[in-house]
Amino acid sequence: MVRKSSISLTNSSKKKSKNASSSSSSSSSFFTRHSNVYVYVPNIIGYARLLLVFVSFYYSSSGGRTNTKNHAGFISVFTYLLSFICDELDGRFARKCNQCTEFGAVLDMVTDRLATTGLLIILSNIYSEMQFVCISLIFLDISSHWLQMHSQLAIGKRGHKDMRESRFRLLRLYYANRIFMGVCCVSTEVLYLCLFMAKDKELNAIPGLVPISKEIIKRVSFIETFDSFLQKTLGVGSLRTFATQFIVLAIPGFLLKQIANIAQLRSAVVAMCEHEPEFAAKREEAGTKKN
């Protein structure tokens, strides 16, 4: 009896150790490369980004600019910011967990374009006099990134961010220096969000980080001129508000981002035209194989 009980105890302990090891291995394999790409950590973050973006756009179109009781404007900005933070996290987890995939790269890029396009559409409705500007920014953003990815893959590059051999210095700096890219991207998103905040009654009431009194604005002619310029052209609040101050801070990075987009568009067109003989040879080779 003693022998049997000891055997059963050893068997149960072995089962427990097996279960523990299998559970630990399964949990550890979740954060490494495995067969189910759909549930890779960066891809799950990508799904969360999409959900947050849709939540943000839902609240931004549900009276958030005029109704302060439901805090729709605040929820819209907050969820969009969370989505933007997730944009940084998915890349970090992809590299850390060795879960970089083509699906994840496309999901990230598509989500970026959807988020920016949706936000610009909302701004075009708020600032009706700037609809053409918003449409132009949408065209530039989508065309430059799509052509860049297509051209880079067509000429055998790993992705649209592989610009080490580009003749455009700005693009090499943009894609090689993460700080520079981050400043440009963050400035653009901050500008768009603050333009939205400037038209929301609740959010536009937030005071600026730099205390600027009415007396200072009136005394300093440059500040007064710039303040009136912003109010007339954009219809935003005074420089004393949080939104307007960050609009001013974000403009330089926003302009650099648009210049980079233009350079990216031109670079993609040049690359596709220069490699056309190679593309033609491949098409001919594919045609002969069919025949």
Tell me what you see in this structure.
The protein has 291 residues and is an all-alpha fold. It has a domain at 35-126. The protein contains eleven helices and no strands. It has helices at 2-30, 41-60, 72-96, 102-126, 131-154, 169-176, 178-198, 214-219, 221-233, 242-274, 276-290. Helix 2 (41-60) runs parallel beside helix 4 (102-126). It is globular. The termini are far apart. Mean pLDDT is 80; it is low at 20-24.
Layout of secondary structure:
Layout: H1 2-30, H2 41-60, H3 72-96, H4 102-126, H5 131-154, H6 169-176, H7 178-198, H8 214-219, H9 221-233, H10 242-274, H11 276-290
Category by helix and strand content: mainly alpha
Poorly predicted sequence stretches spanning 5 or more consecutive residues = 20-24
Basic shape: globular
Mean pLDDT: 80
The string of secondary-structure elements, in order, is HHHHHHHHHHH
Number of strands: 0
SS strand fraction: under 5%
Report Rg. 26 Å
For the biggest sheet, the summary is: none
The end-to-end span amounts to 80 Å
Helix coverage percent: over 70%
Q: Specify the oligomeric state.
A: single chain
**Helix segment count?**
11
Membrane topology: Multi-pass membrane protein
Catalytic activity: a CDP-1,2-diacyl-sn-glycerol + myo-inositol = a 1,2-diacyl-sn-glycero-3-phospho-(1D-myo-inositol) + CMP + H(+)
Keywords: Lipid biosynthesis, Lipid metabolism, Magnesium, Manganese, Membrane, Metal-binding, Phospholipid biosynthesis, Phospholipid metabolism, Transferase, Transmembrane, Transmembrane helix
GO molecular function: CDP-diacylglycerol-inositol 3-phosphatidyltransferase activity; metal ion binding
